[in-house]
Amino acid sequence: MSLMEVRDLRVDFALPRPRPFAPRPVLQAVRGVSFDVAEGRALGLVGESGSGKTTTAMAAIRLEEATGGQVLFRGDDLLKLSPDRMRARRGEIQLIFQDPYSSLNPRARVGDIVREPLDLLAMGTRKDRESRVRELFARVGLREDQLGLFPHQFSGGQRQRISIARALAPGPKLLVCDEPVSALDVAIQAQILNLLAELKAEMGLAYLFISHDLGVVRHVCDDVAVMYLGQIVEIAPAEAVFAGARHPYTQALLSAAPSMTRRKSRGFQRPMAVKGDPPSPTAPPAGCAFSARCPKVQAICRDIPPVLEGGRHKAACHFPG
Questions:
Q1: Which residues are registered as beta bridge partners of 175?
Q2: Most-buried pick from 123, 161, 242, 292 (CB within 10 A)?
Q3: Which helix (H) or strand (E) holds 4?
Q4: Fold exhibited by the domain 2-246
Q5: Using a CB cutoff of 8 Å and minimum separation of 24, what contacts does 137-143 make?
Q6: Torsion 60-281-52-47 (CA) sign
Q7: Rounded to the nearest 10 degrees, how much is the dihedral formed by the CA atoms of 279, 284, 286, 289?
Q8: pLDDT digits (tens, 9 = 90+) for 86-139
Q9: Is 0.85 topped by the overall pTM?
Q10: Per-residue model confidence as pLDDT tens digits over 143-185
Q11: Does residue 207 contact residue 195 with C-beta atoms inside 8 Å?
């Protein structure tokens, strides 16, 4: 059952005029994105920097203003809710930020940081909130005697555990994870990913997981949506994407991932290598957004935009592999 349904989401940013009285250019950051996040499942948004992953997620939960589209969450269109009704929904949708060093108030004790969402949403009595904070500290692997400490007294991994506890405090149904392990050491990344996987299984949480690391997505996510130039070019269950990607861009991402079994010393050559940079989002191409970099490009690709189709394994490509 779908918890969140995003339909034709669009986000445009107006840029400064290049000269006085000239038309204001528009950057099309998200161009008609649609996806579902099912209850108890994790959807990974994958793509290189600038593909629109974070903007898509922030617009879906109204931390960024959407230009158009629809975001249904448990029957309500979030983009049309009044500020008061959206505030009431905030407890069900929480966010884990990328950088655990800047996302915590350095002047607040960590116990107060974790309790803050409960205070803002007026959930329970003071005693109930303090009990909830102690419970969450234990659940994320921290000690009760650390509640009175400040963020600078913790390591990066511990700070991210504090961020996770804060996100869990109001009892959300959906966690938006904005590259939650990219700022951590590899060994600590594994611990945090295992914790997120455990929480998802035990609490029935749904994740909208943003990452550029395919290994991380493979470990955590049930479904994968690959983004390029503000559009989803492939979406499918994770096992289908990693077993047989259909879009050339996804194939290129997979072939670029590090692997001990595919070393140059053994004569390995990447089967799908791309060159150049993505087109400007202020002037996207008329046809396929990937056509300028795709090694399989044909004439139709430059003129006609492909449609995202294909049942459970959808790819926006005229010649899916």
A1: 94, 207
A2: 161
A3: strand 2-14
A4: Rossmann fold (3.40.50)
A5: 137/111, 137/165, 139/165, 139/168, 139/199, 140/164, 140/165, 140/168, 140/195, 141/195
A6: positive
A7: 50
A8: 998 999 999 999 888 899 999 999 999 999 999 998 888 999 999 999 999 999
A9: yes
A10: 999 999 999 999 999 999 999 999 999 999 999 999 999 888 8
A11: no
Cα separation, 131 vs 138, whole angstroms: 11
**Residue with structure tokens 């617009």?**
59
Amino acid at 221: C
Question: What's the burial of 123, exposed, middle or buried (CB within 10 Å: 0-12/13-18/19+)?
Answer: middle
Tokens of 313: 């394994």
Higher local confidence (pLDDT), 306 or 277 = 306
CB contact at 8 A, 136 and 165: yes
Tokens (6 digits) for 160? 């991210």
Tokens representing 193?
A: 């990913």
Tokens of 71: 């975001």
Q: Helix and strand tally (H, E) in the chain?
A: 10, 11
Q: What is the DSSP string of 60-117?
A: HTTSS--SEEEEEETTEEGGG--HHHHHHHGGGEEEE-S-TTTSS-TTS-HHHHHHHH
